């Protein structure tokens, strides 16, 4: 990633660590840096009554989310985004995490809404006036953990599944139960629970006309080629064991294979009845870094990858495409797969300036059409090697193939 790209990401992260009194100033700096005129801060909602249900973050603090109410004809429409943030797979990892806003709500501050959460009808035509919810990720187990006992030596709580239930219950009471249209989405590590809980979420909304789910850069795969590193199976095995996730994983899957394999979307997607859509790069930077090498992005950016690296990219793309839902029913399983070496798209990349087209189509257009049943698409970019991401001097993100 370029120096200015790193600066942009750092600006976003740092802005979250600024006190509420400085939020306005930080917001203006963000807008100037990336021309995000429609970015805005949303205060945090702490779900205090979740504690009595045992639904708590790693450190025992109550879970939290950010809610921006809908308006106009969008008052009965809801989009809920489960925030990403990898996983903690051992006690040391989780203990360190519990001292950050990825493990404790006591350290969370107002959050920046942009992209698919934008209020601009021009930038976000299909969802601009919806109720928008950003669920904070503070359990480290992709909202799947459910262990009753707490080790007094660490005070770590593994209760992610309870957190999901408690937050949805809180939102139901605030109007979600009367939703006309709804989307459960998740980014990165929490693309998986957006699938795992998709049918359950749908069942809670009997009045809804349309309920669908959205996976943003969370379709990680179990590679089989020995030239590639099968890192995710090891990660998922540790997560399932530490967080006690097995009990919430689909029995239709765990009856056929080891629980950690049921953490791979490819192994549970066939049993999901609710329509879901996958947005991801075939060369997603997190997946590429994990499977091929952590310094690989610099080679992609400089366009000087070796023949061996290019062969690895081609094999990864091939395995990734085979793991996706088949293209025979795009109404139930829509996809938008590009080739840009980046991770997640619903925030920084969800606007007219930054949107990356595939065959003159953008995620914004394709997903909107798919969700509203205007057109069902299964879009896959034909590039078999990763495309670098550039950040131009005017501060706007732009991709070039």
UniProtKB/TrEMBL annotation:
<comment type="similarity">
    <text>Belongs to the pectinacetylesterase family.</text>
</comment>
<dbReference type="Pfam" id="PF03283">
    <property type="entry name" value="PAE"/>
</dbReference>
<comment type="function">
    <text>Hydrolyzes acetyl esters in homogalacturonan regions of pectin. In type I primary cell wall, galacturonic acid residues of pectin can be acetylated at the O-2 and O-3 positions. Decreasing the degree of acetylation of pectin gels in vitro alters their physical properties.</text>
</comment>
<protein>
    <recommendedName>
        <fullName>Pectin acetylesterase</fullName>
        <ecNumber>3.1.1.-</ecNumber>
    </recommendedName>
</protein>
<keyword id="KW-0964">Secreted</keyword>
<dbReference type="GO" id="GO:0052793">
    <property type="term" value="F:pectin acetylesterase activity"/>
</dbReference>
<feature type="signal peptide">
    <location>
        <begin position="1"/>
        <end position="26"/>
    </location>
</feature>
<keyword id="KW-0134">Cell wall</keyword>
<keyword id="KW-0378">Hydrolase</keyword>
<dbReference type="GO" id="GO:0071555">
    <property type="term" value="P:cell wall organization"/>
</dbReference>
<dbReference type="GO" id="GO:0009505">
    <property type="term" value="C:plant-type cell wall"/>
</dbReference>
<dbReference type="InterPro" id="IPR004963">
    <property type="entry name" value="PAE/NOTUM"/>
</dbReference>
<keyword id="KW-0961">Cell wall biogenesis/degradation</keyword>
<keyword id="KW-0732">Signal</keyword>
């Amino acid at each position: 990633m370029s120096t200015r790209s790193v600066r942009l990401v750092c600006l976003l992260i740092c802005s979250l660590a600024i006190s509420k009194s400085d939020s306005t100033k930080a917001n203006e700096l963000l807008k100037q840096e990336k021309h995000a005129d429609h970015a805005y801060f949303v205060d945090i909602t702490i779900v205090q009554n979740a504690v009595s249900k045992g639904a708590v973050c790693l450190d025992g603090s109550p879970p939290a989310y950010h809610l921006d109410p809908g308006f106009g004809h969008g008052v009965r429409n809801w989009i809920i985004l489960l925030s990403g943030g990898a996983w903690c797979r051992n006690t040391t990892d989780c203990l360190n995490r519990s001292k950050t806003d990825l493990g404790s709500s006591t350290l969370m501050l107002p959050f920046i809404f942009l992209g698919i959460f934008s209020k601009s009808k021009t930038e976000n035509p299909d969802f601009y006036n919806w109720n928008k919810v950003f669920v904070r990720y503070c359990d480290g187990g992709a909202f799947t953990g459910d262990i009753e006992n707490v080790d007094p030596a660490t005070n770590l709580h593994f209760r992610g599944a309870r957190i999901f239930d408690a937050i949805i219950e809180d939102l139901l009471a605030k109007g979600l139960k009367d939703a006309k249209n709804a989307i459960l989405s998740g980014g990165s590590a929490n693309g998986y629970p957006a699938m795992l809980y998709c049918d359950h979420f749908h069942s809670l909304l009997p009045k809804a006309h349309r309920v669908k789910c959205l996976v943003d850069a969370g379709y990680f795969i179990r590679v089989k080629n020995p030239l590639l590193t099968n890192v995710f199976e090891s990660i998922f095995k540790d997560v399932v064991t530490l967080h006690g996730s097995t009990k919430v994983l689909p029995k239709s899957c765990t009856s056929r294979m080891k629980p950690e394999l049921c953490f791979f979307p490819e192994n549970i997607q066939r049993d999901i009845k609710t329509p879901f859509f996958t947005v991801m790069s075939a060369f997603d930077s997190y997946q590429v870094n994990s499977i091929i090498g952590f310094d690989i992005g610099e080679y992609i950016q400089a366009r000087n990858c070796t023949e061996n690296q290019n062969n690895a990219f081609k094999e990864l793309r091939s395995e990734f495409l085979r793991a996706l839902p088949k293209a025979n029913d795009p109404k139930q399983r829509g996809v938008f797969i590009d080739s840009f070496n980046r991770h997640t798209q619903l925030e920084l990349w969800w606007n007219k300036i930054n949107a990356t087209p595939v065959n003159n189509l953008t995620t914004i257009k394709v997903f909107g059409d798919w969700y509203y049943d205007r057109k069902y698409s299964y879009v896959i970019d034909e590039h078999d090697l990763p495309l670098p991401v550039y950040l131009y001097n005017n501060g706007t993100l732009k991709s070039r193939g």
